[in-house]
Amino acid sequence: MMASSRRAVVWLRRDLRTSDHAALAAATHAFDQVSVAFVFDRYILDALPDRCDHRVCFIHRSLAEIDKFLRQHGSRLVVLFGDPTEEIPRIARQLDVDAVFVGRDYDPYATTRDREVGERLKGQRQRLELVKDIVIREPGELHTQSGGDFRVFTPYSRAWRKQLAPEVDLAEMPIAYAKLAPVEDALPSLEPIETYGFEPTDLWLEPGEAAARKRLAFFEPKMSRYESDRNFPATDGTSGLSVDLRFGTISVRECVRRAQAHGVAGEKWLTEIIWREFYQDILFNHPTVVNHAFKSEYDGLEWPGEESHFQAWCIGQTGYPIVDAAMRCLNATGWMHNRLRMIVASFLTKDLLVDWRKGEHYFAVKLLDFELASNNGGWQWAASTGADSQPYFRIFNPLLQSEKFDEKGEFIRQWIPELAGFDARTIHDPWARNPLEAMGSGYPRPIVDHATQKARALKLLSSVRETPA
Ligand SMILES: Cc1cc2nc3c(=O)[nH]c(=O)nc-3n(C[C@H](O)[C@H](O)[C@H](O)COP(=O)(O)OP(=O)(O)OC[C@H]3O[C@@H](n4cnc5c(N)ncnc54)[C@H](O)[C@@H]3O)c2cc1C
User: Fold this and answer.
1) Ordered structural domains, the chain, with CATH
2) Taking the complete model, does pTM exceed 0.85, yes or no?
3) I want to staple 330 with a disulfide (CB 3.0 to 4.6 A). Which of 191, 221, 336, 443 is the partner?
4) What is the DSSP string of 81-119?
């Protein structure tokens, strides 16, 4: 008697691609027939305030590309809408699979959700197979020599590099596409985005795997200049791949392979990818960072910032052109350059004295590449409350940052039309350098004085007694 074919389903989440894909590779290696599913999670979608959310649009268009690819291989994407803890066990039952394969997601919400899905599947005599995909080193995988967790980046990065075994960690995941299974017509397919309660919206970058690969290929020749170019927002000096790493339209293994192929020239860029994993590690080992300062001494600090100042920061009306240009760019595109993220985060916490959690939340709503671990890490770094963060007395001067990193005012000019006609010197500080012209521009006066606020911040932050790391 012939054995019945063994079936599995791959549940896509943060791995929206079809190559070098850990879950697809594992499933097609072990099973005869493999289906692919995605769930539009109502719990996540209902919490989004904007029905034109850039991320939902990015996901939707990336799924369309996957669906097309699967159809070329005799299958198609099954797209569900609802609570994944119900939808996944239901589809697993309908498809009569032995196992559901997923790339492991380490965020607190995802971990709880997956535990529940796993238990429900077990109750149906099916299993959830979690595989490593979104990182090279999983959170909690690396330890200090004394067996503890890392709190400082440099030793973490050293351990990461030391343990890297390229033939194992970076190997491309081979997928047996011939095992992709035909899908019955009755099962739900990808519908227009409106079906999931959202509107299509323009994106500043092309979604999907093909576009992500193009971005990587475009960036590669610039890798050797990354160290010098990466701080200038008007220069296209970084990869722009954070969104792809967030949604898995590119494999992190591929990024690291490419960085390694460039030897020393790829080192600095690789370091940034290790920062991403460092923050995942911090979140995993210290889940309280989600709502609390990593350095707990700072947790009771009362940030005296005013709500009206926070609102001015959100809409790019602080009177500090580099800050306002950055915030307007974020609001319009869902994107902000790393140097600008550092400037606006420092400005909110140390010039406006607003609690970092408010800025973190605002970024979480707006950023196309929003990743809980990196966003929390970045904000706590800027506020000096985090793991290996800036010392509290290091306070960015927004004017000097502006003159250094946007010397000719190109970035400011792009996002603040009121200042488009100002010369390269005046544009950084219009009210001090040409008040008459500033008055006619409609651009606001600075809402605070940097020197005064710096003194207030120093007094506030120095009142906290830090315990040594
Ligand atoms: C306040 C603040 C909030 C941030 N929020 C996020 C966030 O929600 N999501 C996010 O992906 N990054 C976040 N970052 C990190 C960083 O700003 C972005 O990853 C970077 O700007 C993305 O641009 P890129 O892809 O061109 O990066 P590149 O310079 O090309 O770097 C390559 C990759 O390394 C990773 N990376 C780079 N810098 C960092 C960093 N400082 N921390 C962690 N990972 C890094 C990203 O995955 C990035 O795509 C934040 C930084 C700050 C200061």
Assistant:
1) 7-133 (3.40.50.620), 135-171+209-285 (1.25.40.80), 296-462 (1.10.579.10)
2) yes
3) 336
4) EE-HHHHHHHHHHHHT-SEEEEE---SHHHHHHHHHHHH
